[in-house]
Design a protein that fits this description.
Elements lengths: L1 H8 L7 H17 L11 H4 L20 E4 L5 E4 L2 E4 L8 E6 L6 E2 L1
Antiparallel strand pairs: 1-4, 2-3, 4-5
Length: 110
């Protein structure tokens, strides 16, 4: 699927992010609802999909050991640790991260 996505939706790249996202959306609509798949007896995934009867309740809060260092991912998706900055994604903004003491070195390891 990823090769097909790359070939059909990114070659050549769209002029801007919104246009590229529209291409991805069009590809996914076709891939899931129009294009037959050999592994699905030539049916589209959308024809066979059924929603799970189990509701998603989310994850339980994580508990970290007392000697772990914890912090919060910044609003721009960054972890600031000692003098280092690690960029993750804005998707993780507000989430807690933890770092435990390494058993092989004398310092903290992220």
């Amino acid at each position: 699927m990823h090769l097909t996505l790359k070939q059909e939706a990114t070659k050549p790249a769209a002029g801007n992010v919104l246009q590229q996202q529209a291409r991805f959306g069009a590809f996914m609509a076709c891939f899931n609802h129009e294009r037959p798949h050999q592994a699905l007896a030539m049916k589209a995934p959308g024809d066979l999909y059924t929603r799970s009867p189990r509701p998603y309740a989310g994850l339980a809060p994580l508990a970290y050991p007392l000697d772990d260092r914890t912090g919060t991912v910044t609003h721009c998706g960054r972890i600031c640790y000692k003098s280092r900055k690690v960029n993750l994604s804005q998707v993780f903004a507000g989430q807690t991260w933890a770092s435990s003491r390494s058993t092989t070195t004398s310092g903290w390891s992220p």
